[in-house]
Amino acid sequence: MNQEIRNLEPKALWNKFADLNAVPRPSKKEERVIAFMMDFGKQLGLETSKDAVGNVIIKKPATAGLENRKTIVMQSHLDMVHQKNNDTTFDFDTQGIEMYVDGDWVRAKGTTLGADNGLGVATIMAVLESKDIPHPAIEALFTIDEETGMTGAMGLKGGLLNGEILLNLDTEEDDEIDIGCAGGVDVTATRSYEEEPTPENSLAFIITVKGLKGGHSGMDIHKGLGNANKIMNRLLFDGFENFGLQIAEINGGSLRNAIPRESVAKVIISAIYEGAFQLDMQNIIDNIKTEFKTTEPNLTIEITETELPEKVMDLGIQEGLIRAIYAAHNGVYRMSADMEDLVETSNNIAKVTVKEGTITVQCLTRSSVETSKFDLANALRSAFELMGCEVTFGGSYPGWTPNVNSPILDVLVNIYEKQNGAKPNVVACHAGLECGILGTNYPNMDMISFGPTIHGAHSPDERASISSAQKYWKFVLKILESIPVKK
To answer: Where are the bilayer-spanning segments (predicted)?
Structure first.
């Protein structure tokens, strides 16, 4: 299966991607991929090291004739988002990604592909291994845990790198050159609640929301996609208001940086309302599916009868939770006033868990403006504190302020125009690139971000364009031989 991938052009890139995807590499469990990368550098005879937090640095001298060029840092992150379809049996901790070719796309069988940021990592590996690619002195930086906290970038100390230019290979449209990105903060609401015995003469149901596209909670947040937690909450709100529905459990969403695709709740109602409840729920389901018929054509909402739970939530706490989730903002909060079509601030209600006396709601709030980020975070905090939750902010990281006068930007724009006969889109993105964080300890480094076209990142629909990878590889090779001379 993966041999099909290895035969794709450019082979240097796709072979390294296949090698990398054979190594399990979930965020916060990167021990195997760190060891893999350390072995890779040492087998090439290159200076290879690991810093205190687990980032890997491999240094390669300039090729003949380019010794006078500025040293560059080529950077990508080792970890990948692990998501799979409900009907896919797969163990991310032990299995390599199973890939296949679908027309112009490389996909994975029912899971995320790992092109984010595996194609960037594979690019750097191919350059490090090459014997015929002209390049200046390279410091390859492979960071860890980008997807669940940016702890690799945050833990990188100053003084470990000498490069003057950083090429971050973690964007997902091949006609874009990124010069800025959003920062983020995790907003987590928790509280305990009392459980009470299930009333007599009750019926229990499982409500399932599934079939949503999901996707990247930054790059896809403006697309109007369905959020399983918000859709579920509409059903619970109506059931509670009209039929006294009580919640036994909720399990919605999985990862903070992925738009939630699925939510499952176990609820009860009084048996006397069975017919009316089913009819009312079907009306709401029909309305929701009509609203999302264009953006979410595969949305499925099922209600099936199940065994009665022994206990359910206290009604007072339940009402507060349902109203708080309804009030909590999800999606785009503000568009940028300075860059056309750029989302400035947004929130993703990523995960809702209610079980055995504990409520947890996890959100990821993003913004390219630090004050706006905390404005929205405080709005969320207020909504959940009003129902008695303890709300914490964690994992805050800064955005990357655009520099339109970047010298390396001029180099990339000129190369792109000559190769493609059109201007690239110079943009800032609503995602958490590591450049802003790395810039805190390396403030004088000229930074740029670009990459091949990848769609559906952070979801099992993730796919990488083969033709775009060829275009991107050609771009990379020309950039490497065009790095400016040292001053």
So the answer is: none
Answer whether residue 150 is part of any domain: yes
| Same-domain status, 67 and 123 | yes
Last residue of a domain, one of 397, 431, 461: 397
Nearest residue to 190 (alpha-carbon basis) of 378, 354, 324, 389 = 389
User: 59: which 2 tokens?
Assistant: 């240094």
Of 146, 147, 296, 446, which residue is the catalytic one?
A: 146
> Could you say which of 397, 420, 441 is where a domain stops?
397
Question: Is 486 within the bounds of a domain?
Answer: no
Distances (CA, A) of 24 to 82, 90, 162, 458: 10, 12, 31, 16
Domain limits at 420? Answer: 2-181+400-481
Burial class, 460, CB count within 10 angstroms (exposed 0-12 / middle 13-18 / buried 19+): buried
Largest distance between two CA atoms of the chain: 84
Asked whether residue 427 is assigned to any structural domain, the reply reads yes
Active-site residue flag, 410? no
Catalytic residue among 30, 79, 170, 434: 79
* Domain assignment present for 211: yes
Q: Are 5 and 118 in contact (CB under 8 A)?
A: no
Residue 235 shares a structural domain with residue 368: yes
Whether 79 sits among the annotated catalytic residues: the reply is yes
Q: Considering its fold, how many domains does the chain have in total?
A: 2
Q: pLDDT in tens for each of the 487 residues of the chain?
A: 578 999 999 999 999 999 999 999 999 999 999 999 999 999 999 999 999 999 999 999 999 999 999 999 999 999 999 989 888 999 999 999 999 999 999 999 999 999 999 999 999 999 999 999 999 999 999 999 999 889 999 999 999 999 999 999 999 999 999 999 999 999 999 999 999 999 999 999 999 999 999 999 998 999 999 999 999 999 999 999 999 999 999 999 988 889 999 999 999 999 999 999 999 999 999 999 999 999 999 999 999 999 999 999 999 999 999 999 999 999 999 999 888 889 999 999 999 999 999 999 999 999 999 999 999 999 999 999 999 999 999 989 888 988 889 999 999 999 999 999 999 999 998 988 899 999 999 999 999 999 999 999 988 999 999 999 999 999 999 999 999 999 8
